[in-house]
Write a structure and sequence with these properties.
Elements: H1 14-45, H2 47-75, H3 95-112, H4 124-130
Helix pairs in contact: 1-2
């Protein structure tokens, strides 16, 4: 997983996605437990070191799932722009926005669960749309 953590153009099967996300969740829980015990010591030593360490670890934990999700959306035949819809989570709390947030998260989850679309099953016109413009 780590050798392709910044690759957003590749493909990602459902199995690879699930195992990778599960591993990242476990790593995140370990990180949170360590941070809860070490927060006071780090803050008292150097607030700048605390910020730098947290930023690096946060990046390590959250950049790979983002690229995995982009690859999984692309492999499922969906547009990768759907990941941007998760920004709706930042909307203020209200009944309408809460429904919109829940519906969006559930729909993106549904798209992540779709089976992979093989490149060989694409028609010639679809293949040209994907990026192979050799005949033009």
């Amino acid at each position: 997983m780590w050798e392709r953590c910044l690759d957003i153009d590749g493909l990602c099967s459902r199995e690879e996605y699930v195992w990778s996300i599960l591993g990242l969740i476990i790593n995140g829980l370990i990180y949170l437990s360590i941070v809860n015990h070490a927060t006071q010591k780090l803050k008292s030593l150097s607030p700048l070191a605390y910020i730098i360490i947290n930023t690096v670890i946060f990046s390590i934990l959250f950049i790979p799932p983002g690229t995995l999700t982009l690859r999984r959306l692309g492999d499922g035949g969906n547009g990768t722009w759907w990941l941007w819809t998760l920004v709706l989570i930042l909307l203020p709390n209200s009944i309408v926005f809460s429904f919109l947030k829940i519906a969006t998260v559930l729909y993106v989850f549904y798209m992540l669960c779709q089976p992979s679309k093989s490149r060989t099953s694409l028609s010639a016109e679809d293949y040209n749309d994907v990026g192979n413009t050799k005949g033009e």
